[in-house]
Protein 1
Amino acid sequence: EFGSEAGGGGADELSRLLSLAVELCGAVAPKQQDGGLTIRKLEPVLGALLKLGADPAARGEGGLDTLDLLVRCGAPWVAWAHLGLEAGGGAGSVREDIQALDYDIDESTLFHQELLRQPLEYRRRLNLYRWLICGAVGCGTGVLAFAIDCICEQLFDVKFSVAAHAMTLALRGSGSSAAAWVAGLATMSAINLLFVSVAVGLVVCVSPVAGGSGIPEVKAYLQGVKVPRMLRFDALLAKSVGVLCAVASGLVVGKEGPMIHIGAIIAAGVSQGSSKSLNVRTMWLKSFRNDHDKRDFVSAGAAAGVAAAFGAPIGGTLFAMEEAATYWSQPLTWRTFFCALCSTFTLNILLSS
């Protein structure tokens, strides 16, 4: 079909486009651990190239160079990578540890037939599991938010108590109020420096991806970028303890942004029933170990983090739907709202007790 539309040179043109597509897919998406490229990585670029290659009017008499061909076929991200490679950066200029997630929807007839062959009871059970996991993620996020609030208050009390005790000792020893104020400020500064050092040490030595609020990383993940070690247990540990120490040290920071990242990590761990950092992999929840379901649970976890930070489940749902996620559906809206409700309810119950 391509040869008949492109004329006598269709076979040569097809060969050129095939070679170009394979070369670019290999440059932008390096080989995985399985040893080769999948059809899903090759198909979008190849389809766009073939569509443009079959249109002689679009190519023009002189043809198109590689960069122009990529931009016109709607693959500017591949064109950017190709331009970087041509500039002399080589294969090393493309980060091989950052990969794309498989968010493509399978529209094949065989796939839909396989879905229809699944028993109705099986599909209902999976849907029930999704609701239960969202509830568990919301409750877990609320419990962790409560722990962060309580420990922050305790650290503040300890810090001011130690500073007050140092002021009392200095006042008794010297009898000067100025010496007492200097001792109190020095003690307060030393404790704040200790808290900041703990937070910095966790980020530098344990999990560098835990630095910052975590919102850009969560948004990148929900838009299809697999950020390395973003959803690991060590990132959860560094983020939780780090935000504790950062807030207790008196820095102009809050727990709102980190709670979004924390909720996303909890959702990723609970929904998959496994942890690479802890080397734990259970036999449960195998049906949800794919990029589609994990993405949906991470969206719900981000909403639970917002709800726990601000006490606003509707605001958390709107944040996940409008700001963070790119892929959305009506059932996901209700599950995300339920997850945010569980987070706010759990936090308020624990705080009131």
Protein 2
Amino acid sequence: SGAVVPAFVPSPYDAIRARLGLSAGTGDCGLLDASEAEGPCVAQSDGDDTLAAYELARRSDIAIVFVATSSGEGSDRASLSFDGNADLLVRAVAAAKGRRTVVACVAPGAALTPWAGEVGAVTYAFLPGQEYADGLADVLFGDVNPSAHLPLTLPRAENEVGFTDAMWPGVGDKQRVASYSEGLLVGYRWYNAHNATPAFPFGHGLSYTTFALAGLRASPTRVTVTVTNTGRRPGAAAPQLYLTFPPSAGEPPGQLRGFAQAQLQPGESAEVRFPLRARDMSVWNATTHAWQPVHGSFGVAVGLSSRDAAALRGAFRSP
């Protein structure tokens, strides 16, 4: 394995201070209440003492809690929770600040967020790199309107999909053998097939503006929708196309077949087109080792996540 030692790594504390225009020796809140400070100030705690973090949050206007977890080549993570006292820390700060709490998460994959309903916002970064702090400050202060969408599902509980030991990590005395009996029900497909609601679905992502979809048109060669920025700020929408095969195909419902991004000013609309290929309406034939077209009625859903209740729905027939 290789390693890189970056020339510098800004801390979130320094990035936030810089965004506020605070120079060295100024803007340290110390033990002041926010109402007593002369101008903006920033205070920090290492989070080890949850009571101290609660008191610091209580004296502040806004609280930002940083939580993280990591993994390596030598072993798997022991759980989907964030490291250390992260859950207790978030809940302590949220008890003091409520919806004026932001939780900034860093993880190599999915993690549990049991406190998400107790805070005002959650940011989620996957291995963000040395400029994470400056990038986060840009988002927190509204200099950049976030437009990213989750590439995976965040579950509500450990092993929410019900994997058995035989499925993972495998069973056996001399050598473990895993049976992939979940078949095609992996990730968001499991949630769609079981009509289950995760903490945050695949494809989910929020913005400082809002979007609406309309005018769904579907055929075997193309699906088209119109997306409109219904908010007050410029932003990027990312409509996603999900197809449901005819029951005879034995495929999971609502499979991703395309996504597109549209940069829109407030009130602006754009037509988003999803071209379809024969491959998009085919299944793999393990006997012939080739893609086999499926014929019949295909369900269509275009939304802003895999579980978007407001998704536009329709159908087309593949001859």
Protein 3
Amino acid sequence: AFSTNSVLPTRRHVSAPSSLQLKSDEQYDGDDRHSPKCELNRRTALSTTFAIIATTASPFLHPIVSNAQDSKGKVVVYGGSGYVGAHACSLLTQQGYAVTSISRSSPETQLARSKSILGTSLSNVDYISLDAGKASLDDLSASMKDATAVISCVGLSPGSQNQKDGNGLVNSRITQAAKAASVPKIVYIGVSSTLANGPAKFLLGDYFSGKATAEKSVTSEFGGKNSLIIKPAIIAGGPPGEIRPPGPPGVKAVDVTAVARAAVSGAVGDLIGVIDGNEAIEAL
């Protein structure tokens, strides 16, 4: 966990689960919750695996509020009203960034959802309704116009219908559109390698395949120096009223604010590369 008033670290390149190097230079509505060193599973699966909640990103340009013009830059958060996304939006606004949250849900629904998660409304966030799985790439690119960074918390929960494309194709489209819009940086919330390579892969192969496709797209379009892939497994807590199954025995969940802080660090250019595992995320 971290204080929302804490100072972000200087830019670092992260590539190994726990190594950091100094660097100079619902289908899918919500956040995909997982944390680095755990195993995923459906809500009805064995206790050694667990379900991950999907992140949202959808929309047809329909803002509810206008950002202040005097800001450090514009950051677009796909799935910005989900669990991780709402916390990321909050941190970004506190640091003086103009923030746009994009989801399939209406702006009013996004605003209400964010308030239920954070306990307060983010009146200075632009909420836009757009479906990242159906909108044209031109419309997706238009939603990112003048953005200094994009964060994608979009995904389908494990075991969901169409979980492969809902995690892979949708995020690949977001990544391609961001590249076409000349967005300098992108951050993606993936899934830990420990989970993806563990026993859960036999039960949730399409889920992990979709995540892998999304991560590959981020690396292909932006390279390691202009992107950050955060790979959590179990994320502690959840939106109010949401009941989630326990994770594997002995696995410590990562705090949602730690994941959100990592995402914000990537968006503002302080972190690049790959952060794989809960311990690596909490060590930032």
Protein 4
Amino acid sequence: RTRDVDDALSFARAKGRHGLALRRALKNKRKVRRHSLNDLINEYLMALLRLNRQPDAQRVNGDSGGLTVSRLQIAARAAPMLFGNNISLWERWVYEFAKIPGGLFVLREYLPVRDPKLPPSLYEMILEKMFVEVESMLSESSREKKKKHSYIREYAKSAQDATDLYLNTLRAWGTTSSIRERIKLHKLYYKQRQRLTCPAEKVFDPMLKQAEIDLHIRMNQTAAGYLQNSPDPLLSDLNSHGSGSDTHALKSSIDEPSGITSDALFDMMAVSSHLSSRLSSSIGKERSAVQDKSKKTAIEKKTNANATVIEAMAEIKFMQGHYDEALKLFLAIGAQFIDIPLSSVEDEALRLVGSNALHEKAEMDEKKTSGCY
């Protein structure tokens, strides 16, 4: 009899060629009768991530049977195109990535935030898991780092890089009003910095750029966008949003007086409660060990994790519009975790204020001057 698409898929699956089976199914969706596309997607990702070679217990401990960071990246990039708006597939594979040490750090930038919007509990689990891995990195000794394998070390070269990725994810998934306010603050900082240096100098602010990208994604991400001809159309949109109508649309969304919104992707109280519990438990351990000099290094490493907890809690206060409480927490980080004398901080503040006043006077006296003063 004549061979059809279903026969070709059966043959490919029997031979373990799951990538070929999935490609043929995607090209001939309307002709597939006997095979489930979801099953083909699951089989392909299981083979790609080597999940069918090791039991769960071994994978949790870091042995992923030949899995590499490049395979993780391929799977993460493919996820939006394969899952689309299928929330059940997203949920299943987010938990599979969570079993791989560092897996969520690779997947995070490809997770949907608008179309579809995943359950808040899923975003909360991701943030919690990411924080636990950051905390582990901050507290590990050099010997432990060699023994324990995590793909986060190939994706984020240091504990500080991992911390930044965690905090960037928290900010990106917070309220859109807080992202707008962050953009305004960075623009104000940019303007002040120019006044204190040289008006003609262009200062690149990576945090400003990241906040603009985060807002663009929150306002425009769609499942359909991944299914166009471009290999990654969403990223292409972001790379080109600095010109024409896209720039105008982004500026309008930033400047829109929306007030404090309640559109965070996660339950802010739940995340804040989890962070508070981590801080309370670590402080208790520090107090009990403070007299033991042999534990001094461990305490110092735990202190770094505490600084991350407080900064994350400050970010949540900022999202909620409690700017005074957020400022207190940010100041607490400086007071407790930075080895700079308070007198030096005060001197620097006075210098900046004095320099700003001098530049304001110079601007009034030389309005027609456009170069450096």
